[in-house]
């Protein structure tokens, strides 16, 4: 067996994308091993752990779970609901995940067994489950195994198999699936005339692939062939003038590539030194020691070997992370503020993500749907820590006072990461809710034992443990004896009296 090792000190190598942007996927100190044995091809890779979609964000944790925040109109958060979250929540029914890719309204996840799972928008079959129905929880992509990398684009998806072949499904208006047609596909088909691929990039209407020989290939509504503009192609063509490439990233209007010497090259609409269109790749000056590049919508991020992040292009929503609201566009790279020891970066539509060596996730830019993950919807102009949604604390010291035919309940306020309200139960039946710390039950029957429970809940539908009090007939209210209350942070809390 002959082995060719390509050691790439990258935080991102594989690229994935959204409607108007392609996002480079997180690789830390990646070693790619290409094995050749009697004509066979085998590819081994590490995987990305953060991803930014149109207006949402994803993270894979060390335990193989996936957490999301932001817009959720098509179920792209994967938590079984369709409303947005400004703090991270866990994707349901998904485990053993090693990689994620966020599209504009849909997502892909790669499991350790080589299968691919998808959720969110499915209008063009981009989930690959042979339907066009959206899903708020993950479903397995049909007939796809041995996958080592994934890339979610604008209503279509790409997957890279261990044998170096690329597979595609979803929208195919411009031939971005690369199967020689413009037919929509609801299950994966193989990209034609393409092999020995080690990295993929799906974006808005066109795709990129990096081969093991360091060349870059493209298909669909391509930016150019490296020499001149090409309207579109349904089969892969080589981007001329690019050699010795180790990383790629693609957005709707421009693309980036890093050479093995750490230099950065771009083509398409030029947001470095102006807005001219470059059909021939040109070097981005003043930048070296690059280990990762991520192309956003009209802006770019770059990670250097010293762990610093640099940005250039549009800054209308703070996506450059330079902390200056007055700068709406910058043509030369500026250092992102307050970031060090960065391992990976992500340029999303109008927001950015970074993961540091301690595992922390930082975000900045537009935050209209809570995609920054800090519990607000205010645009952020320099990096802030993303947070996880946690349940409210228990509403302690619940008391009950009999007042004629009514019973007045009072309790201490719960604390949490978002605004909190309370549900009130009488004998396990929901009788009301309030945002205050007091409630009057005007329909109480004071001639019998009554058990009240109060449960705090927040805007993210997280529930506290219940606080319980018992009102006895003709006796002062008291805490029940031998009463065990079980609650799993959902509405379905139940009691069990010990005889």
Describe the structure.
There is one protein chain. By secondary structure, this protein is mainly β. The chain contains no helices and 42 strands. Strands 6-7-8-9 form a 4-stranded antiparallel sheet, with no helix packed on it. It is elongated and about 90 Å long. Mean pLDDT is 85; it is low at 1-44 and 475-499.
Separation of termini?
A: 71 Å
Instruction: Report the strand count.
Output: 42
Summed up, the helix count is 0
Largest sheet entry? 4 strands, antiparallel
Helix content: under 10%
Biggest sheet, spatial arrangement of strands: 6-7-8-9
* Weakly predicted, low-confidence segments: 1-44, 475-499
Work out the radius of gyration.
26 Å
Net shape: elongated
Sheet/helix structural class: mainly beta
Taken as a percent bin, the fraction of beta residues is over 45%
Average predicted confidence as pLDDT? 85
